[in-house]
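User: two proteins, same treatment. go.

Assistant:
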Amino acid sequence: MDRNQAIGLSLIAVMFIIYTQFFFDEPKVDETTENNPGQTEQVITESNEQKASEEVSVIESEESDSVKQAIANSKYGAFAPSANGNEDFFTLENNLLEVKISSKGAIIKSVRLKDRETYLGEPLFLIDENSSKQSLITEIDGKTIDLTDLFFSSSSPKTVSVSEGSESEIKFESTGTSGKSIIVTYKLAHNQFTVDYDLDFKGVNTNGKSLVISWDNHTKRLEKQLEGVRVGSRPETTINYFRSDNEEFKSLDAASTDPQYDTLATPVKWFSMSQKYFSAALIADKGFTNTQFKTITPPESDTTTVKELYAKASIPLSDLNGENSSLKYYFGPNNYYVMEAVEGAPDFKENVRFGWKILAFINKGLVLPIFHFLERFTGNYGLIIFMLVLIIKLMLSPLTYKSYKSMAKMKVLNNLLKPETDQLKEKYGDDQAKVQQETMKLYQKMGVSPFAAMSGCIPMLLQMPILFALFNFFPYSVELRGESFLWANDLSTYDSIATLPFNIPFYGNHVSLFTLLMTLSTILMTYTNSQMNSAQMQGPMKTIQYFTPVIIMFVLNSFPAGLTYYYFLSNTITFGQQTLIKKFMINEEKIEQQIEENRKLKGGKKSKFQSKLEEAMKAQEAKAKKTKKK
């Protein structure tokens, strides 16, 4: 309390004493107390005390209001009248979003995605008043004001619904003295995930002033799996942004559990608080300056907050004044085509992770277009994945045929040459170089390239980039989220047919049936192919090839059911392709006849590569002999 307030209170107290002593009227005596002096005295005393209490309350209330008003005038200047009020809530909604806006600060309090649910089947709020806090700080008439402290009024209905093919808005106004006001307008169009934000100052000098936006978002848990790279939401939650100076998409390290920071003096066009399947973003027409980003990973014991995300950015007030929207929010899924359509946000679609550049190129150019095309015909994503496998297998069928043909040729050749190769091993013993050289001569006599077996592997290797691309496609495909198929309740997470009472290291405490089927089909494929190349697959390698599918089973047990279902279908269809090729397209008897004819013709002309390879083998043999002599 300062000196003026102390003097004021003293004067009020003196006036109160003078009033009670000289101007206070005694109450009239009731007939019931007229003949009872004691009762009369008691009534008079109680009445005097009540009056005195009421007068003190009035004085304290007046003093409190005056102090509050003085503080408001000092803090908010011309907008002191808007510092007090009652908080109301307004709803702006379309067919996709329900946006709740508070009259205090005219800020968004919560956003619900209408067509989505959490993993618990509850309404999906991307942000709410408990998880998301914003402040909008600027300077007005020399005073630093947080606009979220001011109360705004609105003549709009409490709920504004956007009709099909149209756009609706809610307008808020905070009125100050001297004709000054702040007008905030939210606009939402039908079938859109973006909310336009207009901020207009009337009668306020905005030259050289900026608005500092701070956003603290403790991202809510929306998914079943919290931990684990590619499968959990925590290692996939971060802040992404786009630098305007070099037109580069950047992001803070999502997988790290250490706090991540980034401070930029260069312009930033937009930033997003991105989870695995959903993002909340802010986009500026002319960009932000002096941006600061920070992410903090909570301890594993916190299973409600995925990650704490902080963003701070400045924007000139001159960029905000005007009829055209200068800021817009995005609240929606990490859907590639939806994000690509967001105007004024270059590379916004990069919020969808598709892996390294080569894998992202395959996913964007091949897998995603096919997937999106199939969505036009059915909403059953199990069938879509099945058709996706068929299409990709059909595209790769020439490679599959070539691979199987080479394997069949090598099988026949090895059967024919087995007696001779066994003799070579007995004759040259441990001299592997000589054995290889003589074996190549046998291949040459048969008219078969010694690299025929390798040529059978090349087509399979060419398919590997697609398999790795799909390894990055399915875990981040929001289209699969919440979609069920057969026993899998959600294709975006693992399917569990049994929960174990204990945890197996690297495997988990659940049993994924699609992963088991994928593993069994892989083992079957391995066995079938090994029968084709039994002569070339010897020793430990023959055993190791069966361990690989088991290792993959441990790795993929917690991966999305959509991925393991795809791999299972891929193995099954490949097995069917090989069966059809073997039965109807490959005649091993004809292959054997052709090889025998080549043997009679003493082989064909050597290629340059074969000649050079034979020379290299001879040089290796000569070097080995010199070593033995020493």
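Protein 2:
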Amino acid sequence: MKIKKLTPKEAAEYFSVHVHTLRQWDKSGKIKTERTAGGDRRYMIEVKDEFDICYCRVSSYKQKDDLERQVKFMQEKFPNAETVTDIASGLNFKRQGLKAILERAIQGDSINLYVAHKDRLCRFGFDLIEWIIKRSAGKIVVLDQTVLSPDAELTRDLLHILHVFSCRMHGLRNYRKHLNHALCDGGSKKNIQKMD
């Protein structure tokens, strides 16, 4: 176990309470605090351990080269950090690497999570993942801090959704084509089982 000093805002997010509640806990001795030289409070929180993790993701195996470049870049930036990779859609929350990180955060590990771009972590739900990480006194650091206007961000998100669904439609058309081909070849179970 390790003691981590949190600002009032960070401690409020950690405990899911208001800053005024933290002050009351301080006065009643329910929580330990320390004062900085400037007189600001720092709340003393016991955390299991602190881990630095770099998360890298690409959408398909065709982008494996891009994944390797991401990993190399992140390892150069954070040489002592653990690296977790996934090859899956940013809309897919069943990714093994992401689930492992979230599971560790839920168990109480304080995780400093580093990602190159916000969309490498997820297309949607970034705030939820950030909340889970912060609940265990961790943080998410996004290296590319490009700020988009709300209109540009909404447009980008809609284009991502359209792209994902068009890829799925293409996959279904491909599946139907193979199914029809298998049925035209005599419909043998052997041909149909090959598709699975």
